[in-house]
Amino acid sequence: MEGDESSDERPKGLKPTFFRFFGRLPKLAQRSIKSLLPFAFLIIIALLPLGIEPTIQYALAVFVCVAMLWTFGSFPLAVTALLVPVLLTFFGIFRAAEALEPFADPVVYLLMGGLIIAEAFRRNGLDKRLAYYLISIMGGEMRRVLLALMLTAAFLSMWISNTAAVALLIPVAFGIASKAGEDKAKMSLLFLLGIGIASVFGGMATITGSPPNAITSGLLARETVWTFFDWMKIGVPLSVLLLGMLYWVLPRIMKVERRSIDISAIREELKTLGPLKPGEKKTLLVFFPTVALWILGSEIASSLGFSEGFMSAAIVALSSAFLLFAIKALDWNDAKNISWEVFLIVGAGLALGEGLQASGAAEWMADIIANSIGAYGIPVMMLVVAIFCVVLTNFMSNTATAAVMVPILIGVSSSLGLDPKFLVLVTGFAVGISFITPIGTPPITLIYSTGSVTRRDLARTGLIIGVPATLAVVALVFLSVNFGLV
User: Fold this and answer.
1) 105-119, 184-198, 276-290, 298-312 — which is least confidently predicted?
2) Quick one: pLDDT at residue 325?
3) Read out DSSP for 392-409?
């Protein structure tokens, strides 16, 4: 789960490469330009005689300003998020209560519950136990160790921060690769790329897996019936398909001569952990019923005669979070480790989307886009949208990319009379293909920061895997929506 992706914490010096023309300027000048230029565009667009409705013009000005701030990284994503309701109310697009309402959207609380469950996994050591267990049972054959690392990264990323999952697995990967002798460097590279990209693919499986998933689902739920299980109907098969492709392709790209590795140290670590501790048992006691209710909660509530919202995904998440504290699997001090800023970013993304739609700006932009691509068939439009999102998300946060693109594509769908799921879901999944550069998502930034993965390694591997992954996203979403599976 990309729960702390929102913090956009990157090692110093990892700035988007398309700002190199700023490189010769003093640092203060660079920061000033990146901070002031978006506000200059805000004022210019708001005051230009564009011949459109003032509300639309103001919403466009806010949209461009916020998109530039997120793209430039002028401020942390959460800080820019604070500005969204301020600008929406300043320009009269929303009243204060309307601008703040998206910050209390059910998907925000679903994400909150997911992050608290994730912290229970981390605090009680279940993530480490899972990693050691899978590697131990897979044996020392190189491809099996790679598979174990990938499966661990993917499974953990469905429910907990994928940055935390990758941070946990990096030392494990280095420890195993150190036994490979002359192939140590190649094996480290193979394992790091495997866990980094697998964490991204695993995060696609559930709404809680990534803030872009939450933003996409939150906005889509306002247009049509959409549940936690609906996302999984596409997300899980897509995640499995992409992981299978990664497992088949990656060893062929990063060839390692050595075929077996000594994993006795990992097995010793597993023995040291001993049997499940009380905190681990308590966490699992809450986790498994939570997943079951996320999938089947609405049907169970209906059959028992409860109110419709009682077992909604958000209420189940909050109930589970309460239980984890109540049974002492967590205490409140542990909650300090949670990336609370993610809720500001998701809320701001939803608020920006609502503002674009309520003002008519999304429809205005959608008409322009629809006139450009509307003559093509749905699969072609989906492919164009997917490629654009993949390019964009590799040069700015994938959370910001989803917040910018989804409202526009909802408008495009409305203008063309399409089911919004075609274009919106393609966007939600395509922004996850952000592993071609070290910029788009923190797990990839993290493996890059180890020094064992170069930009060339990422670009080469990312393109070889990213192109078929993009095609798979388009094909699976099209088939699923076209045949009424979601």
Assistant:
1) 298-312
2) 94
3) HHTTS-HHHHHHHHHHHH
Single-letter amino acid, residue 341: E
Token pair listed for 433: 């293909």
The verdict on residue 413 lying in a domain is no
- How deeply is 80 buried, as exposed, middle or buried, from its count of CB atoms within 10 A (0-12, 13-18, 19+)? buried
The whole-number pLDDT of residue 55 equals 92
- Helices H, strands E: what count in the chain? 21, 0
Residue 330 maps to a domain: yes
The closest alpha carbon to 324, from 291, 293, 284, 297, belongs to 284
Of how many residues is the chain composed?
Answer: 486
The answer to whether 470 touches 462, Cβ cutoff 8 Å, is no
**Local structure of residue 7 (DSSP, 8 states):** G
* Side chain identity, residue 343: F
Summarize the confidence of residues 317-341 as an average pLDDT: 87
d(CA 25, CA 32): 11
Written as six digits, the tokens of 347 are 């809320």
Task: Considering only residues 109 and 338, tell me which one the structure prediction assigns the higher pLDDT.
Answer: 109
In whole angstroms, give the CA distance from residue 119 to residue 122: 5
Residue 15's pLDDT is 46
Q: Per the structure, how many domains does the chain have?
A: 1
* 427 domain-assigned: no
How far apart, in whole angstroms, are the C-alpha atoms of residue 386 and residue 389?
5
Q: What is the dihedral of CA 361, 362, 365, 366, to 10 degrees?
A: -150
Positive or negative, the CA dihedral 432, 436, 439, 441 is: positive
DSSP-assigned letters across all residues of 332-345: GGGGGGS-THHHHH
Gap between the Cα atoms of 61 and 72, Å rounded: 16
Beta bridge partners of 425: none
What's the CA gap between 196 and 186, in Å, rounded? 15
Output DSSP code: residue 452. Answer: S
197 neighbors 465 (Cβ within 8 angstroms):
yes
Q: Find the domain containing 309 and state its range.
A: 107-337
**Residue 216 amino acid letter:** T
Question: Is residue 419 one of the residues assigned to a domain?
Answer: no
